[in-house]
Write a structure and sequence with these properties.
Layout lengths: L11 H14 L14 H9 L12 H20 L6 E3 L2 E3 L16 H10 L5 H19 L8 H23 L2 H15 L8 H8 L12 H28 L2 H4 L6 H10 L11 H10 L6 H27 L2 H10 L4 H13 L3 H14 L17 H12 L2 H13 L6 H12 L3
Antiparallel strand pairs: 1-2
């Protein structure tokens, strides 16, 4: 914090923030700014894998389905033999989730997925390979949704699988002809929009973000926007149909509730919530879904999923603009969505990198006016110990606004709980001497 003469560095916050942004998060290669879903390592990985890919056949889709499903079925058969409440049905075995043992990867239930994926990603027969990868994602998502994944081993496996698909789809975007690329992305988009992902917004958006690899070229960019629009339409239809069903049938009859309606109402009352989904905030719905999905009606579950999707899809909208080269539009999108923490942080980073200090000061005021308690999510605590106030401090330092800095440090010193009293004393005196 001090220079070689032992004095305080009056531009320390400016230098710390600028160094962090230009040497870290903002420095993202060709995309001219921070991105959320795109990472240059995807392109690097797809290029590194090129030497392992050859024009070799992949398994027939029906064979891939069988290879994937067999170990999964063995898994369910084995636990059914151990669980007294398991029931045989025409389609297989039904086991109450609460009675299931916790799923672990070492059960080898997903070994068939490994085999099919390994076979697909070494082939340059793009459509055949993507068809099998889509089947692997679809069946894995369904499997994870039907086991007791209490340690998130299945969820983490699915996340890794989606990343593998993204890397392969980048190779498709870079190497296949546009028509093949469009067909391949449609296959993945169809899986992203099926029922297994409608309640998992972030994973759905991650799959849709396979389109980002196509957004870099004029002749394939529209494929990425088509994928985005299909995802948006799917979630809109899902929310609408759930609302329609809720209005035509009693929710307690439409699904197997884990708690009775009276106790659900009591929990919502205790939490200060109301019964109508339209009166619950997005935060309330999300908190209830995290606490116990059984506390939500079908309509509320759909609304919570829609809210989560609306939040997650912002990242894809932004990255599409940024990667397409619409830099001004991407920056405008960040500014317009400044009440979303990551998007606001990204715009602040853009202003700091461009040394637009007055614009940064105005932006901090805008953020704190519209959402006074907004936190920073993309900056580490050591860089912004006072959250947005540290960013304001950096802007004031760069602009030499000593009066406002003195007032800021005095306010901190008046706060008896502030842990940085000595440092703020030094800063106060440094800027007092500049007045």
């Amino acid at each position: 914090m001090s220079n070689e003469h032992g004095r305080i560095n009056r531009l320390q916050e400016v230098e710390d923030l600028t160094e962090y942004i230009n040497n870290g998060w903002l420095h993202s290669g060709e995309s001219d700014g921070p991105t959320f879903l795109w990472n240059d390592m995807i392109r690097e990985a797809s290029q590194e894998d090129a030497e392992n890919r050859n024009n070799v056949p992949v398994a027939q889709l029906s064979d891939a389905d069988m290879v994937i499903s067999m170990p999964m079925q063995w898994y369910f058969d084995s636990i059914a033999a151990m669980v007294p409440t398991a029931e045989r049905t025409d389609t297989g075995v039904e086991i109450p989730r609460i009675d299931m043992p916790t799923f672990h990867l070492d059960s080898q239930a997903l070994s068939g997925v490994d085999a099919v994926v390994g076979n697909a990603i070494v082939s340059t027969r793009w459509l055949d390979a993507v068809g099998n990868l889509a089947k692997a994602v679809e069946m894995t998502a369904r499997f994870v949704g039907n086991v007791a994944d209490r340690d998130n081993e299945g969820f983490d496996y699915l996340k890794d699988l989606i990343q593998t698909v993204r890397v392969y789809m980048d190779a498709v975007a870079c190497n296949a002809d546009p028509m093949t690329g469009e067909q391949a992305l449609n296959i993945i988009t169809q899986v992203a929009c099926n029922e297994d992902f409608r309640l998992n917004a972030m994973q759905m958006v991650e799959l849709l973000s396979c389109g980002l690899s196509f957004a870099q070229w004029d002749d394939t960019r529209m494929f990425a926007y088509d994928a985005l629009n299909k995802g948006i339409a799917t979630m809109s239809d899902f929310a609408t149909s759930a609302s329609t069903l809720a209005n035509s049938a009693d929710d307690s009859d439409s699904r197997d509730m884990q708690t009775d309606s009276q106790s659900v109402a009591q929990v919502k009352t205790d939490l200060g919530l109301f019964e109508d989904a339209d009166s619950l905030s997005a935060e309330d719905l999300n908190n209830l879904a995290m606490l116990d999905p059984a506390l939500l009606s079908e309509k509320e579950i759909a609304q919570a999923a829609q809210n989560q999707f609306d939040h997650a899809v912002q990242f894809l909208r932004h990255d599409l603009l940024r990667i397409s080269g619409d830099i001004d539009e991407a920056d405008r999108f960040l500014r317009d969505n400044h009440t979303s923490e990551p998007l606001a942080d990204a715009y602040a980073a853009r202003l700091i990198a461009a040394e637009r200090w007055q614009d940064l000061l105005d932006f901090v005021d805008l953020v704190l006016r519209d959402k006074p308690n907004q936190v920073t999510m993309m900056f580490p605590e050591e860089v912004v110990p006072y959250e947005w106030e540290t960013i304001r401090e950096a802007a004031l330092e760069a602009l030499g606004r000593s009066d406002e800095l003195v007032a800021m440090y005095q306010e901190r010193l008046d706060d008896t709980y502030d842990p940085n009293t000595a440092l703020n004393h030094l800063k106060l005196h440094a800027w007092l001497n500049q007045q």
